[in-house]
Amino acid sequence: MGEVLKIEHGTETLRITQEGGVRRIAMARPPANALSLGFMEELTNALTAAAEDRNVRVVVLASDAKVFCAGHDLKEMQAARDEADKGRCFFEKTFQRCADLMQTIVRLRVPVIAEVNGVATAAGCQLVASCDLAIASEEARFATPGVNIGLFCSTPMVALSRNVHRKHAMEMLLTGETTDPTHAREIGLVNRVVPKQYLGQVVQKYAETIASKSAFTLKIGKEAFYRQAELPLSEAYKETARVMVENMMAKDADEGMSAFIEKRTPTWVDE
């Protein structure tokens, strides 16, 4: 593994390592990686810093705890009810910061892979759904259980409903029941399910495969993917045709096609 960088903010900690072009951001806020206001800011900053580092080509979002992420910090949120406004200002700030975090993942110039071992519930499930790819161990579990405590998982619903069929999303949201990794794969929440002992190895292989591609091509493709997904069919084709032309004019497209014709390995310049 590469050099270990440690970021600390009070008791809220991330463990960041990098090997080649793959940066691994592991949440390490025991016991459940609860997304407090401070921790969400910390995680957003770490993701942004990864995107600004030109040596980073793929980000892996993982956990060093037994739980991947149990969602928002309910103790922190309940404590805010003691404020004069009954917590309204704090709640607004919390959910806005959560939205910023999820959109940071989607808008990041590099692909983000969720490495899920353990439980991912509520906003933790939202994290998984927001990532570009998700690989889960056989011990992973997923749920949007807000309905069980009188708080519908409305913000997790945004990422969830954009990744799985509406009826499967509604089933998770309405029942609050836990979904095993096999079913999560069947409904499109995760890409693969592997034995726990091979999880890191499989994720690293995925990350290295993606990191070997042109960073420019990955960036332009990821941006186009999410942009076209929100457009009507004809507009989506118009937009992606524009992107294809832009991509064709890039140095890496010229190099990649030449390398294919000449039967050699391309040398990317990421332009």
Describe this structure in words.
The protein has 271 residues and is α/β, with parallel strands linked by helices. The chain folds into 2 domains: 4-211, 2-enoyl-CoA Hydratase, Chain A, domain 1, CATH 3.90.226; 215-261, Lyase 2-enoyl-coa Hydratase, Chain  A, domain 2 (Orthogonal Bundle). 47% of the residues lie in helices and 17% in strands. The protein is built from 11 helices and 9 strands. The chain has helices spanning 37-52, 74-79, 88-107, 123-130, 154-161, 166-175, 181-186, 199-211, 215-228, 233-248, 251-261; strands at residues 4-9, 12-19, 22-27, 58-63, 112-116, 119-121, 133-137, 141-143, 192-194. A 7-stranded mixed sheet has the order 1-2-3-4-5-7-9, with helices on both faces. The longest helix is centred in the middle third of the chain and has 20 residues, at 88-107. The radius of gyration is 19 Å and the shape is globular. The two termini are 28 Å apart. Residues 6-11 have low confidence and may be disordered.
The topology string of helices and strands comes to EEEHEHHEEHEEHHHEHHHH
CATH evolutionary superfamily of the largest domain: 2-enoyl-CoA Hydratase, Chain A, domain 1
Provide the helix percentage: 40-55%
- Radius of gyration from the alpha-carbon trace, in angstroms: 19 Å
Low-confidence stretches are 6-11
For the record, the CATH architecture of the largest domain stands as: Alpha-Beta Complex
The CATH class of the largest domain turns out to be: Alpha Beta
